[in-house]
Write a structure and sequence with these properties.
Order of helices and strands: EEHHHEEEEHHHHHEEEHHHHHHH
Structural class: mainly alpha
CATH architecture of the largest domain: Orthogonal Bundle
Largest sheet: 3 strands, antiparallel
CATH superfamily of the largest domain: Intergrase catalytic core
Number of domains: 2
CATH topology of the largest domain: hpI Integrase, Chain A
Number of helices: 15
Strand order of the largest sheet: 7-8-9
Strand content: 5-15%
Amino acid sequence: MKKNSIPKPIFDFMDHQILVTAFLHDPSISFANNDIEITYKFLKQYGDNQATLLNYRKEIERLVHWSWLIAKKSILDLRREDIENFIKFCQKPLERWIGTKIVSRYITKDSQRLPNPEWRPFIATISKTEISKGNKPRKDEYMLSQKSVKTMFVILGSFYTYLINENISEINPVLQIRQKSKFLRKQQNSNKIPCLSEMQWQCLIKTTRKMAEINPDRHQRTLFIITAMYLMYLRISEFVASDRWTPVMGHFYKDGNSNWWFITVGKGNKERNITVSDSMLEALKQWRKQLGLSLLPSPNEQHPLIPKSKGQGAVTSIRMIRQLIQECFDATTNELAKKGEQEESTTMASATVHWLRHTGISDDINKRGRPIIHVRDDAGHASIATTDQYNDSVLRERHSSGKKKKI
């Protein structure tokens, strides 16, 4: 491979399996086969969790590309200085390594999986608001966020720890950087978690209900999903079927105290039981009525929680659910603008689907005073410190004490 080569994807993902593309075993790189075998075995550990696997694949593949094409080294020969140079490169990649849209890594042609020539390891992005204005991403404005840098440290550190544990390497160059990191900014306070305002949330739920009345076949499911994300803090991935879990109606159940719960398997392949409020139960009844089912599920009922709109079985596409919700977000943005709430409309245009989960958690803690430990367990947070980030009481008090300062 030449130094000015445009990287090609190394690892494919089909039928819930990670695959190695044989054409990348370049004979001109003596260490290519060994590097690919090592990274493949590392990534295969995460095969049961698609979201984690895809994140790890992205970071490890970038490292391999840089190591081969820029540093001209095997990943086993990289040291602290190399990793530092790699991170600097990721902060400002070569322009030919940057794309301006997300595309499939591979395309199928004549029954063969071939690398998509438009794929790039880095993607320049802009906000939804900028897109709505007709602006397009620019390669020269690519930026690597602090969150992405932190993620990179975690994944690369995990990779080299794996190599040590497997007696493949003796050092972890990433840990040597973290001891005196110049890449990660320290923060006095946690970043504010993005949530919908009360006006935005009320407008969204009202707008979605209207859309469900006009087009129930399409948007009754959207109304149910949005309600569940807000009231049960569900992630979008927890609505779709995967190898490890398929959400069905029977996952709603009543205990011996006549309390309703919902069971799911979420991030980290962790199973959890979630409190089902009276309002959530009513939303479930409405959704089941739309599907032609009895008002409440029977024990062990296997009907998909979110069935496909066409065909049999449960929805498997996160993209489809995201599209449904985005239609309601866009309608809400327009509705706020019509009411003259331009600031609220502009912020709404930048909102993502995940804000619904954030909003539900934040509202329960800050508006309803729900115990943080209860919210933690329903949200599936590993640490109460994560849940406590949603508690803005200290920030409100600090701002209140300084709001009326005068010159």
